[in-house]
Amino acid sequence: xxxxxxxxxxxxxxxxxxxxxxxxxxxxxxxxxxxxxxxxxxxxxxxxxxxxxxxxxxxxxxxxxxxxxxxxxxxxxxxxxxxxxxxxxxxxxxxxxxxxxxxxxxxxxxxxxxxxxxxxxxxxxxxxxxxxxxxxxxxxxxxxxxxxxxxxxxxxxxxxxxxxxxxxxxxxxxxxxxxxxxxxxxxxxxxxxxxxxxxxxxxxxxxxxxxxxxxxxxxxxxxxxxxxxxxxxxxxxxxxxxxxxxxxxxxxxxxxxxxxxxxxxxxxxxxxxxxxxxxxxxxxxxxxxxxxxxxxxxxxxxxxxxxxxxxxxxxxxxxxxxxxxxxxxxxxxxxx
Length: 336
Ligand code: NAD
Ligand code: ISE
Fold this sequence. Notes:
Elements: E1 3-8, H1 12-24, E2 28-34, H2 38-48, E3 53-55, H3 58-63, E4 69-72, H4 79-89, E5 93-95, H5 103-116, E6 121-123, H6 131-142, E7 147-155, H7 167-184, E8 188-194, E9 210-216, E10 221-227, E11 235-242, E12 246-248, E13 256-259, E14 262-265, H8 271-274, H9 276-291, H10 300-318, E15 324-325
Parallel strand pairs: 1-2, 1-4, 2-3, 4-5, 5-6, 7-10
Antiparallel strand pairs: 7-11, 8-9, 8-15, 9-10, 11-12, 13-14
Helix pairs in contact: 4-5, 5-10, 6-7, 7-10
(2R,3S,4s,5R,6S)-2,3,4,5,6-pentahydroxycyclohexanone (ISE) is lined by residues 156, 171-172, 175, 271.
EC number: 1.1.1.18
Organism: Paracoccus tegillarcae
Domain Gfo/Idh/MocA-like oxidoreductase N-terminal: 3-125
């Protein structure tokens, strides 16, 4: 079966996911497109999916007969309404992060999916599909004994003027928030944020860098440096220290060059290149599950927990230095 997919939001990542479905993956085709800005949808149609229908409203795309499953790639604040509409239509839905911009919004999605009775939603936490993180998880599970600490960093070369301090959590740290729950099979119980000396490269409305300290239910301590004006490249670091040894996330493959008395490796600068294969694998997973009328991988529950944990981290930014508790409601059986 070829899964007929509609894409809502044809900006940067919506276009890239359309390219993936059309040119990289098997088993699916893009049959419908929608964007708040119709010119954006028409441009993607012209470049990548000439047979797709273009809909002024995302809700009309979800209801369309030529759409079996939906990719929600629009601005974060619009995700909740589209995901709820997809669940109401009984159509599998891949939603880019964040699942919703509030924990209450994410809870409404969990409640709707539980009422539906089976999984329909996959959240775009693609790091769980990254080969490096998968190798790291295998080593953490089998080789280094009980994990005790994680030291991590999420560095971007630069960010635009509209990137403000809370986005370091909602836009950036949210990937670490999700991937460490999965890596450690654990949940957070508290968060704290401290601000080092500010980089002179950071604009006025962003405190940069930041250090987020998370504690898990098993007592594991995690420190994450978020540094979004690091200048030199896009750099994701993760080291897990266990009772018997430690393990590092592998570096992306790169040529080591020796020249003029120097040894050099190139460093990526764009997050799209760093995780290009994991985006392919996550969408392949979505297509396979959607062909069976369901969803797998990161769930609405994971999106909800990420939203609760993110809110605590933003509160910890606002009350810098204070330890903010994180408590989660009971997990519905659908997500066991
Ligand atoms: P973007 O601004 O390039 O694209 C967003 C698109 O959504 C725009 O074309 C805009 O016109 C459209 N849009 C806005 N409101 C809409 C509405 N109500 N209905 C339909 N379309 C609407 O942004 P982007 O970088 O493509 O990010 C989109 C989403 O993907 C965000 O939630 C972002 O956090 C997420 N994202 C995830 C990753 C990842 O690594 N998983 C990377 C980048 C972005
Ligand atoms: C971006 O929004 C993403 O989601 C990327 O995956 C992330 O790593 C990057 O730093 C963010 O800006």
